Amino acid sequence: MVAQPLLNQLIAQGIRDSRVLSVLSATPREQFVDEAFAHQAWENTALPIGQGQTISQPYIVARMTELLLARSPQRVLEIGTGSGYQTAILAQLVEHVFTVERIKSLQYQARRRLQRLDLHNVSTRHGDGWQGWASKAPFDAIIVTAAPEQVPEALLHQLKDGGRMVLPVGSGTQTLQVLDKRDGKIQVETFEAVRFVPLIQGELQ
Predict the structure, then answer these.
(1) pTM over 0.90
(2) Which residues are catalytic?
């Protein structure tokens, strides 16, 4: 199986959730990258997807998904649809994914890929990720796949009490952070250093 060497790497890097590993092995990552990069699809590396954006390396997708699932969310908001790969992973693990993308062409391509995989529990929106998706809030969990310099206030408001947000934060140096909302207060836990494209505010394409 093509995925097995990658799964072995993920396990060696500390990914433990069998649901995440199973879904990653069953999701054809080559369908989410340009044909020129298809031969690298099962490598543990980020790849360009056009428009200055990337598909995250499988380890980061697995890590963020594992952290998100710890709260057993059903309704998840994703900021930064990109290729739709992270969306596809989540859609197989939660009840419904609401995903926002500021680049219209990427949103369109991702929606087509998800339809081809018969993943119909996803709602997509062309919009500013900093603003989230207020009309569908509150969300059990929020995942952000681009890095803001600080956590967007709008997203904190759209996270339900008892909910969890997983995101990279920072400009020069970025860290993966988990925010848990309890009784209206935010508890922050910081994990490893990461590298994501910046979360652009207000500029739709």
Answers:
(1) yes
(2) 56
